């Protein structure tokens, strides 16, 4: 029981850290990638871009750690889904790393662009467009899709096991489904920060903040853990 309580607190802290660090890069980087002069803007705000990249890296590490932290508890209820959730969230982390590398490549390209002093040089614009496309596809399409699938899997286990209240895990299932829909829409050209995308993605951010505090303060549902322990004793 003490071990499960510790796991719940660790998972809650990771959910909270992942949500916050996942949002911060948008504030540091987002506005500098808008508009046709994004290369000039990136070069002029290199420190902000680096800070945003650092937070994005922390978010990438945390994203894989969340499912790993939940695995020892969730595997007791559904090992296949628990393991699959770890796999998808590790894939998510890999795509986020690709996103960060593309961002740093954009920053280097922007600095060379400014040094060249040739605003109309199409080669810089072409490379910038390519790096930006890789960043968006890796982060907003494939990364978010992997996150959504991983989240759906551990929310199914949480819902079935009643380790957390079903209203909370049910909210998670709906929010993760909306996030997956957002990734699919971005695949077909929807802008990452469009009003529709914000509407679809906000529920998962709010849900995981609530879940984080629930796990830290209340932990897993003790009757659900006790019920599983009783079943194990009976089967023996």
Automatic annotation (TrEMBL):
Keywords of this entry: Membrane, Transmembrane, Transmembrane helix
InterPro entries xref list: DUF4386
Entry's transmembrane regions: 7-29, 49-74, 86-109, 137-158, 170-189, 195-217
Pfam families assigned: DUF4386
Protein name: DUF4386 domain-containing protein
Organism taxonomic ancestry: Bacteria, Bacillati, Chloroflexota, Ktedonobacteria, Ktedonobacterales
């Amino acid at each position: 029981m003490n071990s499960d309580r510790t796991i719940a607190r660790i998972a809650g802290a990771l959910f909270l850290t992942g949500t916050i660090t996942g949002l911060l890069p948008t504030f540091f980087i987002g506005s500098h990638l808008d508009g046709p002069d994004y290369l000039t803007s990136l070069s002029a705000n290199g420190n902000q871009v680096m800070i945003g990249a650092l937070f994005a890296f922390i978010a990438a590490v945390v994203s894989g750690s969340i499912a790993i932290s939940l695995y020892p508890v969730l595997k007791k209820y559904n090992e296949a889904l628990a393991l699959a959730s770890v796999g998808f969230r590790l894939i998510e982390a890999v795509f986020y790393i690709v996103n960060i590398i593309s961002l740093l490549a954009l920053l280097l390209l922007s600095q060379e662009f400014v040094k060249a002093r040739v605003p109309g040089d199409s080669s810089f614009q072409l490379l910038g467009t390519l790096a930006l496309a890789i960043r968006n596809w890796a982060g907003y399409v494939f990364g978010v899709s992997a996150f959504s699938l991983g989240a759906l899997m551990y929310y199914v286990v949480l819902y079935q096991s009643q380790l957390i209240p079903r209203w909370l895990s049910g909210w998670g299932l709906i929010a993760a489904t909306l996030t997956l829909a957002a990734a699919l829409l971005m695949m077909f050209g929807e802008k990452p920060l469009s009003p529709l995308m914000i509407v679809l993605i906000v529920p998962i951010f709010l849900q995981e903040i609530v879940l984080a505090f629930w796990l830290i303060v209340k932990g897993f549902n003790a009757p659900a853990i006790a019920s599983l322990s009783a079943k194990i004793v009976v089967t023996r």
